[in-house]
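Before drawing any conclusions, I needed to go through one protein's amino acid sequence and its backbone structure tokens, quoted below without any editing.
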Amino acid sequence: MRVSGGLAYTIDLGDNDTLRAFDAKTGKLLWEVQAASMMVLWIGDRAAHVRCGDRRLRAFDATTGKPLWEVETGSRINTFEVHDGVVYATSDDKYLHAFDAKTGKLLWDFEAASLSCTTWGVDGVLYVSSDNNHLRAFDTSAIKQSAPPHVMWSSQTQFWSYVIWDKGGLAVRKIVDGFALSQVLMYDHWQSKDALATAVDRLGGLGDWNGEEALAQDPKTLCPPELRFDEKLKEQGIRPSAQFYLQAARRNDDPREAEEYAREAARLAPKWDEPKEFLRALAGKTVIKPVRRRSESRR
């Protein structure tokens, strides 16, 4: 049972599944509708939303019971909720769907690498947990405009990297966490590869995180500790972003993702031989030299 706006709503599961609305004070039956395989009920934005069967969502006017809309997803719906005019539903095919609560129009789809389990919206942010112990957060204002969220993070370290260093810091953290370059560009809506590389280079020009006076400095003025590069190479014109991408290529177990990072490093530093050597070794499936030890790098 759900109570909202002076009405009490129930689903009677039987031969003819029935959604009923009662006056919460008097118990008077106000309306009822029948729909096969009703399972879950959510009241929000003056509508009663129910999951019917495995794949369908239906919405009824909360006051009159008049049908408003019906949608069907491509896979079984796990959970759904209504937040700030949007119905969010997770499904077995690892998608998070967003529908306009008034019309049922699909606003946005997000495909995750894992099954989304729970959603909840607070203060303009949609939080989504998943079965791989990730917590993602999305800007709901962008979703309501039928646009993908500006950024997304899936761990506490990614969240704080974004808070301190904005999108550039978030990108650095994601690359260290094993995201493919194409994923970083797509999920956080970088305008181009050059825009991302420029942001990484800007962070590489900040103060030393491990410097003697670092603890007395604003973290925003210091280079993220995950962004490691050789100062001598930088002085020779090898951009921090190129060095960082080559490190990501060497760490990556997926040949395609490794090649993507190495090719970008080669593009950013065309006179640098190491990315080219790495690509030749990758193509020939030979042993690739390991990443520089930490003692040989700036951080």
About this structure: Confidence is low (pLDDT under 50) at residues 286-299. The helical segments are 140-144, 156-176, 181-187, 193-204, 231-235, 240-251, 255-268, 273-284. Residues 1-72 form a domain with the Thrombin, subunit H fold (CATH 2.40.10.480).
